[in-house]
Amino acid sequence: MSFAFPLALLAMLAIPVIAWLYVRHQHQRSRTEALFVAPPLGASVAPQRPRWRRHAPMLAFAVALAALIVAAARPQLSSARPVSDGAVMLVDDISSSMQATDVDPTRERAARRAGARFIGAVPATVQVGLIEFARAPAVLQSPTSDHALALHALARRPRFSGGTAVGEAMLLAITELRNLPKIAGKRRPGAIVLISDGASNVGTDPIAIARRAATLRIPVYTVSVGTAHGVIAIRRGARTVQAPVPVDRSQLAEIATVSHGQTFTASDAAGVSAAYERLAARLGTRIVKQEITFGFAGLAMALLLLGGGVSLWWFGRLA
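Request: output the structure for the sequence above.
Response:
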């Protein structure tokens, strides 16, 4: 439970003070009674004392006061509800290093298989688009609620090339999300899922784009795929050599942090699938805060009525 105005809870400090004043008043009352009736004669003068009943109404009033203070702080409960108007852009790296086979069968194919399961797992009401990038990004599918179109775009055979323009790809994804039609005058919530194996080495600074995404409330979720032992075959003249392409996770993690997203690491195909499954569950729901002030206010009123009622019944007065 959270509170819209938590500073109102500081009023709770008044309750111990009120309790102390009440106890002090009771002691003063006992001393006053002793001035008129000698203690040995108390039982004969008042054989039926109220005992605990004397304090019951005040206890009800104290709890009612606490409930009213909580109500003033406007308590809220958070609950997960299915997203009905969201959009997600999948951004896939197709640079040459994604051909490494340290993730079975390759980094890129493992990512696409997991991406297909991701599209199948998010609610049908969530629009999904696809961008692929190496030295430059390209939109394969604009966000659409027809997930079959997104799956068809994902199944296309990529054309690998050198360069990793992470910043440019994120910028294009942001543009696609912002160009979506508004709903009731409001931009629909969007997110970016970026999968890559390394840091950007061409184009716009991705950290600057991540900051822009944060200001637009578009979180970037990153998945770094690969291991430190990945290699790819490259041609050097007449011969083919194995070039190391170790995964670089640091920049992807920073992108997620700056944009208020989350980062995942995957060293094998199962890890890629698990990351996408968690993302599907996360992006398929939205945390909604529901105010429950009325419940605490109602409890306070009920306790005030109860305390006043029993006080009138037992003692003929309100307190």
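The mean pLDDT is 82.
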